[in-house]
Specification:
The chain is mainly β. The protein has one domain: Immunoglobulin-like (Sandwich). The protein is built from one helix and seven strands; from the N terminus they run H-E-E-E-E-E-E-E. Strands 1-2-7-6 form a four-stranded antiparallel β-sheet, with no helix packed on it. It has a three-stranded antiparallel β-sheet with strand order 3-4-5, with no helix packed on it. Strand 3 and strand 4 form a beta hairpin. The longest helix has 7 residues. The N and C termini lie far apart (79 Å). The relative contact order is 0.23. The model has no long low-confidence stretch (mean pLDDT 84).
C-alpha cells in the first residue's frame, strides 16, 4: 500500500474552482411536495428556478464578496461559484400551480399535487 502525505489544504483548491451543490430537503405535506434548498449569502436575484419537460431546475451563483481580498483569507471552507440542481417531477405534480419563496437563505418551492392524484375515500355500500 502506498503512503499518501496528508495535505490539510487539498480541499481548498477544489472549492476555489466553484464546484458546489446546495443541500436540498424534499418532503410531502397535505396535497403538495415541498423542496427546500439552502442558499446562504445569496440574493433572490442570483437564483433561477425553471420547469421544462417535468424537470425542475434550480441554478445560481454564490460570489465571494468584493469587500475582502482573496489574499487576506486564512481559510476558505465554503464553496463559491455556479451551481445547477435538476429534479424529475412526478406526473402527479400540477406544474401550473408551482410557487417559490426565498427567506433567510432558504429557497422553498411548493409543488402542488393534481386533484386526481390526491387520495380519496370510497364509500362501500352494503347490499341486503
Amino acid at each position: 500500500m502506498a503512503m499518501v502525505r496528508f495535505d490539510p489544504f487539498r480541499d481548498l483548491a477544489v472549492m476555489s474552482r466553484g464546484v458546489w451543490s446546495p443541500a436540498v430537503d424534499i418532503y410531502e405535506v397535505e396535497g403538495a411536495l415541498m423542496l427546500k434548498a439552502e442558499l446562504p449569502d445569496m440574493r433572490r436575484e442570483d437564483v433561477d428556478v425553471s420547469i421544462e419537460n417535468n424537470t425542475l431546475t434550480i441554478r445560481g451563483e454564490r460570489k465571494l464578496g468584493n469587500e475582502i481580498k482573496k489574499e487576506n483569507f486564512h481559510r476558505v471552507e465554503r464553496a463559491y461559484g455556479s451551481f445547477v440542481r435538476s429534479f424529475s417531477l412526478p406526473t402527479t405534480v400540477d406544474t401550473t400551480k408551482i410557487g417559490a419563496d426565498y427567506k433567510n437563505g432558504v429557497l422553498t418551492i411548493k409543488l402542488p399535487l393534481r386533484e386526481e392524484s390526491k387520495p380519496r375515500t370510497i364509500n362501500i355500500e352494503v347490499a341486503a
